[in-house]
Amino acid sequence: MNTPVDVLRKVFGYDSFRRGQEELINTILSGRDVLGVMPTGAGKSVCYQIPAILGDGVCVVLSPLISLMKDQVDALRQNGVRAEAINSAMEWNDVRDILRLARRKEISMLYIAPERLELEGFREFMSSLEISAIVVDEAHCVSQWGHDFRPSYLSIAPAISSLARRPVVAAFTATATPEVKNDIVKQLDLDSPYVLTTGFDRANLFFQVDHPEDKMSFLLDYSKKFPNMSGIVYCSTRKTVESVRETLGRNGTNAVRYHAGLDDGERGKNQDDFIYDRAAVMVATNAFGMGIDKSNVRYVIHYNMPSSIDSYYQEAGRAGRDGSPSDCILLFGRQDIATARFLISKNENAGTRKANLRKLQDIIDYCHTEGCLRRHILRYFGETTEAGGCDACGNCRSVSNRRDITIEAQKILSCVYRIAEKTGGRKYGGGLIADVLRGKSSNAARREQIIPLELDRVSTWGIMRDAPAANIMDMIDFLVAEKYLAIDEYSALSFTERSRPFLKSGTRLLMRDHHEAAKHTKAKTKREKDLPRDEGLFEELRGLRRKIADLESVPPYVVFSDKTLAAMCETRPTDEDKFLLVSGVGEAKLKKYGARFIEAIRNWGE
Length: 606
Ligand code: ADP
Description:
Rossmann fold; binds adenosine-5'-diphosphate; Arc Repressor Mutant, subunit A; single chain; alpha/beta; 6-stranded parallel β-sheet
């Protein structure tokens, strides 16, 4: 077993490398520093685990959170790799035992938090150790430009340079902005590193935006369809977390809650229940998720619109780390915009307020675009993708329920134009535009603007008398998302370079009728066809996995991923040779679990 691909097959049970993995592994083995920038779930871990298994000495991995270290060590041990983690909560005796193992090279990997490098004694110990490589996981934590800056990461470079012999250094992150990348190279003092950035796309995630009239019934419908699947429901406030969890619970879904208002004890317990598959659904604010490596999260539903595309992609990205198909659904409601604006207005710094409003507008646009949702996100991160749809997002898969809104759009744009003309170029928000178009206002403050400005005399006054205000607002949001209208930080609307040509050319404009669409499709998920064909067997194997995980006190996804269980259902291996061919089954797992799973599969077939 001496090539990287042998290790991939025998230890991890996978057939072939994913994009970028082999290059990074070979570069590390050749002794050159690397920086690997790959999205969540792309498979960064094997890029340093394989060199660690093949190398001579101990690979030291710096990782920011105890939970992440524990998960990695559990998973490595399941595959028969000797790995240990040292954390601040451990007794000195245990630490000493681990250090002994490391010195005798009886382990191949040692996980530690960067804080430990600040201890003089530990640095001395490191110097006496034969280190095959130093790995910096979540390397963006070293950058003050990123959002997870950890001061202790700054002690990594000095600690490395104080070693008697400098080992190869490999850094990994999923954050790809150029500032952060440059900063990582500089702050970690990487030596002319090979930098590999793979695309940001997560092909197994299905993106969807819905505008249901009743979010709760959408959610109930969805969770009933997938009763046992692991899912996260993100809400914007603690109050919503409470009511959503309560309603799910009342309707038979085993859901737990997580927000900053609960004590540490309950938060820890609920988190564990979710990770160990004792509770199917986690209902949480954005306080939940950092350091959660649970790989079998099958869906992430945002009950409220998040504050930016950055946080959306990070939170939604917690689905499907194992590569199995998973849903990321955003439930949009107009009220979400007001709540988000209110939260932003509380910030005292005008510059930050402006930047946050810009980001908010980007996610509002995401909720209203008719284009490919995946492309929309990737473009936001500066990645250009091929033209055409992805066929794996709500917009690409459903072209029905669109209606022609050319005339309405012309009326709205004309109204924006006429009002600007009448008021000497002043700009107003969607609420006032909608009132003028409807020729009436239910809002006293706006009525007081309309009369003195003589807006009831413009030619577009009352030309959409019968349209409900909410429909006009939806169309305005759509026109903003498609760049037919511009919106500023005060929500005031104005023309863009697309506005005039559109009014002149009479191009047809189609918009999804969100309310109609929601009524017809209910919580229909486009993923249904991707589920394992034999759900009964899948459930049986999931049950067996749970039992084994309980016995070994590890999370079930560490025993086998959902993807591996699905592959077993597909090929139904009934002997050891066939079992070993299943993706995700290596030699250690065959020995440990093969017999039990093979028996379950045989019994099922009879
Ligand atoms: P990241 O750290 O980039 O978020 P992980 O290292 O946790 O991703 O890998 C995600 C999942 O993909 C894990 O279940 C891992 O075992 C699996 N994986 C990694 N490399 C491969 C591969 N070459 N083939 C199949 N699965 C892989």
